[in-house]
Amino acid sequence: MDHAPADEDHIANATLGQGAGYGVVLGLGGAFAIGMIATTFILKRYNRELQTSEMFNTAGRTVKSGLVAAAVVSSWTWAATLLQSTGVCYRYGVSGPFWYASGATVQIILFATLAIELKRRAPNAHTYLEVIKARYGTVAHLVFMVFGVITNILVSLMLIVGGSATLNALTGMHTIAAIYLLPLGVIAYTMVGGLKATILTDWAHTFILLLIIIIFALTAYASHDLLGSPSAVYDLLVEAATRHPVDGNKDGSYLTMQSREGAIFFVINIVGNFGTVFLDNGYYNKAIAASPVHALPGYIIGGICWFAIPWLTATTMGLAGLALENNPRFPTYPDRMLDSDVSAGLVLPYAAVALLGRGGAMATLLIVFMAVTSAFSSQLIAVSTICTYDLYRAYFKPEASGKRLIYMSHCVVVGYGLFISTFSVGLYYAGISMGYLYVMMGVIISSAVLPATLALLWSGQNKWAAAGAPVLGLATSLTAWLVTSKKQCGELTVQCTGSNIPMLAGNVAALLSPIVFIAILTAIFGIDKYDWKSMLEIRRGDDHDLAQEAGVDLEDVNGGHEETQAEFDAEQAKLLKAGKISRWTTVVLALAFLVLWPMPMYGSGYIFSKPFFTGWVTIGIIWIFGSFIGVGLFPVYESRATLIRTSKYIWKDLTGKSHIKTIHAQEAAVVGTPGDQTPPEKAGIKEEVRSS
C-alpha cells in the first residue's frame, strides 16, 4: 500500500510546517542528548560515578522511590497512552478513558509485588530472564527470551509508528524521515548514560508532559471561548449523541459507563497490558535499579499517578474532539473523522488544533515526542541488558569483562534502534497502525505472563510447565484469533483481524489458556520443590578492569562495597515485610480500579447528569495535580541533599575556590575508609560544615 499521497495531503494541511517537526525531533532530541551527556559527566566528576557495566545496566541499584515512580510513569506513557486513549474516548465517550486507564493501571500496581520478590529472590540479577535460567535451565530461558524480546519489539514499534504518524499529521514531516530520526537522540544519551540517564530523562519528560496535560484540561474546562466549562462540554456531548448515537452505549449516549464496545476494549486492554508489563524487561530494570526500601513505594506511587494521565488526557481531548467536530475549527469539518485516522491516533492532534490552534499542535507535538522518546529509551536498555547478560554472557562469553559488557550494550543499543526503525517502515507501507498493534500485542505475548509470574511466586512450577505453557498458549491464542476472524468476516484482512471480537477471543485465550496447560504439565511431571537458592547465585558483572583503567578503586566509586551478611539479612527482612504489604495493597487497589468504582455505574446504565459530569472532570483535574506533585516535584524534594551538595561542588570548582580532587579528599577524610557507608548526602553536609 503506497502512503505517499497521504503524506502529501498532510503536508498541504499541516498546522505546523515541516521545520517544526525537524526542529523538535533533531533540536529538542539533540538538546536532551547533550543534557544527559552533561549530567553523566557531572555525576562522574562530582559524585564519583564510574560508568561500569553494573552502573550502565542497573543504575547502581540505589534509585529512590520518587525517581522510580517517575521512571515507571514515563515508561508506561507510550504514544498509545495519549493517542489510543483519546481515540477510544472519541468512539465510546466517557467510559473509554476510564476503561483504558484502569485496564492499564492495575498491572503496574500488581507488578509491585513481583518487583519486591525479584529483589528478594535474586538481588544481583540484571534481567528477569536470568532468574528463569537460574531456576529452569536453558530451554525455558530461551523460550522466555523470545517472548521478552518480542514484547520489547511490539512496544517499540507502537512507539515509533504512532509517533511518526502524529509528526506527519501535525507538521507534514515525511513519515519515513520521522521513523528514522525519532530514535537518534535517545540512542545517543542511552549509550552514554545507560539506565541512570534513562531514568533522569524519564523524570524531565514526565514533568513537561504533566504540565501540558494540565494546560489542555484547564483550557477545555475553564477558559476556552467555545467550551470553557464542564457544563458547555456536557451540552455539546448531548448534541453529538443526537447526531450520531453510539452503538452499544446506553441510549446511544457518550455520557455513560455502560458501553458494550468499551467493555470489550476493557478486557482486551487488561489482557494485553499484563503482557507488556510482566514480560517487558524494562519494568524489571526499574525494580532492579531501585534501592530495596524504595521499590514498593516507587511502583505504587507510579501506578496511582499514571492513572490520571490517560484518564484526564482522553476525557479532555477525546471529549473536546466530539464537542468541536461540528465546528469549522476542527480539521475534518464538516465530516467526522475516518475510522482509520482514529486508529492511527489522530484524535488528540486534531482536537488540540481545534482547541488551541498552532499552540495546540505544538503542545501535542511535544507530549508525543516526550512519550515516544522516554519510553523508547526504556526499551533500548531492556533489550541491551537481555542481549548482553542473557545471550552474550550466558552463552558466548561467561567471563566477559566489564569493559566488554559495556561494549556489547552499546552495540545492541545502536543495532536495535536501527532494526526498529526499519521494521516500522515495513509496517507503514503495509498499512499497520499503532491501534492495530496495541490490541494485537496480547494475542502474541500474554501466554507467558502466568508462567513468568509463578517463576517468582510459586516453588511448585516445574520446568516443563514453565517452558511449555507459553508456547501452547500462543498456539491457542493465534488459533482463537484467526478462526474467529474467519468466521466473523469470511476472510482474513487487516480490518477484520483488528476488530474487537477476534481480538477479544485471541487475548482472552492467550492469558487464560496457560492455567490449563500448567495444570496438565504439573500433573504429568509433578510439582517442583524449588529451594530458591540458585537465584541467589546470579553474579554481578566484573568491573575491576574499568576501575583499574580509570585509576580508581571500585570500592571508592558508585557508592559500592561488599555487602556483609548482617546487611544482607537486614535487607531481606525489609523486603519480606514489603512483600506482605504489597500483596494486600495491590489487591485492594486492583479491586477498586476494576470493580468497586466502574462496575456499579456500568451495571446501572447511569447516564451522567451535568453536576455528576462536572464532579467527574474536577476529580480528574485534582488527580493530575496530585500526579504532578508525586512524580514531578517529589523526586526533586527526595534528592534535595544530593542536588544542593552537587551544585555547591560545581560552584566551588568553577570559581576556583576548591579543586574537585580537594573536595573528594576532604570528603574521604570525613567519611573514613571506603568501607564506611555514610550516605553521600551526609558526607557532603559534614564536608561543608568542616570547610566553613
Automatic annotation (TrEMBL):
UniProt cross-references to Pfam families, sorted A to Z: SSF
CDD domains registered for this protein in UniProt: SLC5sbd_DUR3
Instruction: Kindly list the GO molecular function terms attached to this UniProt entry.
Output: putrescine transmembrane transporter activity; spermidine transmembrane transporter activity; urea transmembrane transporter activity
Q: Where are the transmembrane segments?
A: 20-43, 63-83, 98-118, 139-161, 173-192, 204-222, 263-284, 296-324, 405-430, 436-457, 464-484, 504-527, 584-603, 615-637
Compartmental location: Membrane
Keyword list (alphabetical) reads: Membrane, Transmembrane, Transmembrane helix, Transport
Chief place where the protein resides: membrane
- PANTHER family, per this entry? PTHR46154, UREA ACTIVE TRANSPORTER (PTHR46154:SF4)
Protein name stated in the entry: Sodium:solute symporter family-domain-containing protein
Organism, scientific name: Triangularia setosa
